Protein: Ferrochelatase
Amino acid sequence: MKKGILLVNLGSPDSPNPKDVKKYLGEFLMDERVIDIPLVARTALVKGIILNTRPKQSAAAYKKIWWDEGSPLIVLSERLQKKIQKQVEQPVVLAMRYGSMTIKKGLQELVDKGVDEVLLFPLYPQFAMATTETITVLAEELRQQHFPNLKIESVPAFYNKPDYIEVLSNSIKKHLEGKNHEHLLFSYHGVPERHIRKSDVTKSHCKIDKSCCVTPSKAHEFCYKHQCLEVTRLVAEKLKFKEGTYSTSFQSRLGFDPWLQPYTDRTIERLGKQGIKNMAIVTPAFVSDCLETLEEIAMEGQEIFHEMGGNDFTTVPCLNDDEEFVALLSKWINTWSKTPVKIS
Ligand SMILES: C=CC1=C(C)c2cc3[nH]c(cc4nc(cc5[nH]c(cc1n2)c(C)c5CCC(=O)O)C(CCC(=O)O)=C4C)c(C)c3C=C
Ligand SMILES: [Fe+2]
Ligand SMILES: [Fe+2]
Structure:
């Protein structure tokens, strides 16, 4: 048996031009695990409404953050893959759930290298139907259709692994050294509340209130909200943050349905209004910096804070290709490579 690793991130458009952004958003938003409504309604909403207006607006945002080498999310994911490859003997390939660097091409590349056992590694610390699940489901469909002899094992969400929390905490500490911030906001990508209820394996636990996510339950294995709150709690515990000096919020909502709250933009507004002058923000739902961190947080968030009277706004970068993070992922991969047991 020859083993190989497929790292998978979200993906980006091929360029920040409206035509490419429209193509990318069309694929992304037509995913039934992202906009989870029946096909006819989803087609009407995405193709009839969203794709007529959003691509122009999103393209303008992408243009502000695009690098000479390409999309930050792709470039940073490639840097991560290259560094991991240096520490792992087996082939490590990178794919994206949406866009040109498809999971099918990634699996094909591994098969062409003689691989027959794949570790599928979704680059998301927390489980979500719209991220981890859509990757594992698509990989399995592709396996059945095109690679029936391939064995695929998936890495589950790693939000509470002590070594991950340590690496994240070290990075936060390093980037906040000497900043004297009064408040640290942990901002996670949002999801519609409906997604949380759908992923509840017990079908009765999730109430989207202040109690369910802190009451032990089997549901938490697939509860994005619980997993985000846990990352905040574990980092705060590790770094001995004082109560009231940090909080959690959710960003990037789309549409009119309720998404996880409190919303990041309103939280930044509130902190500014409350008289906080020096705040910092960290975005642990993303492994790689991307549109959501570089534009929505570092640009728009900062603007909101300044409008509300705030002064210093520090953004902690994502783990990207941080040396400790590379060493951690390589360690997990090497553990899997040596023993045919699940990483858990
Ligand atoms: C934790 C990661 C993510 C979750 C969960 C997620 C859910 C989700 N997202 C949308 C809609 C959009 N997301 C967009 C960009 C975007 N989303 C993520 C991650 C998660 N999304 C990333 C990393 C990015 C940036 C990609 C990049 O190229 O840098 C966008 C496009 C930008 C925009 O127009 O705002 C949309 C739209 C939904 C509906 C959703 C549902 C659960
Ligand atoms: Fe998103
Ligand atoms: Fe909950």
Q: What stands out?
A: The chain has a mean pLDDT of 96.
